[in-house]
Write a structure and sequence with these properties.
The protein is built from 12 helices and no strands. The chain is mostly helical. The longest helix has 28 residues. The chain is globular. The relative contact order is 0.27.
Length: 304
């Protein structure tokens, strides 16, 4: 089995956990605040890793350049994703944002790096599973929707405020494009430019922080306020996100871009499963089928 498969799958699981807890914090703090301080925490952890491992940056730092470009894409995607979670529901934002997997698949096909038939079937099964697992059961017609009471713990799928469906959909599509481009740029930095994964992700983290700071300074500076006692959970979100980025960067070195891109996009599966385990949410028949289909896709990708 290609080592890129377990690494890519691990990146998706880490992203799913980070998104789950990041989405929860975005109901209590501004989305930009969560995105910024989580990225700061991830950057601190990355600096410590660079200091300990002393990894060389690679040939003429080209990998860092690709990381910088990727950081702009991922930073925009992260803000749109958290904002979408804050205004809409995870059942809408998660599957649409996961469609960013189409971007690395298209890039792989355009560059001639096509997966074989078994891997292609696995890609199709995994993407279908992601869409199914991210769906929720429709509410009973005529039954009023219960609003969240102040102080009541938030659960994925509940909306803290009434967001406009069209606006939420646009944000989800924007996050999908940003995440998909991030996959492509990281792959270009680690494989095309043979850059060290740590430095590629360091470049991505630096540019995303600069972009988030600029957005906050131009818009609402209060978004950069210290999150107070919530800094612990927010920091863990950032460390998990950075860890997922690194896992994906290492997966891109040895794996096919279309394959590892889809595996990295399995994060909604982890998010929904966490909601089931930690918050007691039920999975519908379609969601259970989606989990099985996604796992089947992973098995096919591993066997390819």
């Amino acid at each position: 089995m290609n080592i890129g498969v377990p690494l890519g799958l691990s990146s998706g699981l880490c992203w799913g956990a980070a998104d789950f807890f990041g989405g929860m914090q975005s109901r209590r703090l501004p989305a930009l605040t969560v995105a910024f301080w989580s990225q700061v925490a991830g950057a601190v952890g990355l600096l410590l890793a660079l200091a300990v491992l002393r990894a060389p940056p690679g040939p003429i730092g080209a990998g860092i350049g690709w990381g910088l470009v990727g950081g702009v894409a991922s930073g925009c995607a992260l803000v749109l994703f958290y904002r979408g979670l804050a205004e809409g529901t995870m059942s809408v934002v998660a599957p649409v944002s996961a469609c960013g997997a189409i971007v690395p698949v298209a890039a792989a096909l355009l560059t001639g790096d096509q997966p074989n038939a078994v891997a292609g079937l696995g890609v199709l099964a995994a993407i279908t599973g992601v869409v199914l697992v991210s769906r929720t059961r429709p509410t009973t017609p005529g039954r009023p929707t219960r609003t969240r009471r102040p102080g009541r713990p938030w659960r994925p799928g509940q909306s803290g405020r009434a967001g406009r469906p069209g606006r939420v959909l646009v944000m989800a599509l924007g996050s999908a494009l940003g995440f998909g481009l991030f996959y492509v740029f990281v792959d270009a930095g680690t494989t095309g430019s043979r850059g060290a994964p740590l430095w590629v992700i360091a470049g991505a983290r630096a540019s995303s922080l600069m972009m988030l700071s600029t957005i906050a300074l131009v818009g609402r500076r209060s978004a950069l306020r210290w999150p107070g006692r919530r800094i612990g959970p927010v920091a863990l979100v950032g460390i998990g996100d950075t860890g997922a980025n690194l896992l994906f960067a290492y997966a891109a070195i040895t794996g096919n871009l279309a394959v590892v891109g889809v595996l990295g996009s399995l994060y909604p599966v982890a998010t929904v499963v966490l909601a089931r385990w930690l918050l007691g949410e039920r999975l519908s028949g379609g969601q259970n089928a989606g989990v099985v289909l996604a796992l089947t896709g992973v098995g096919l990708l591993a066997a390819a």
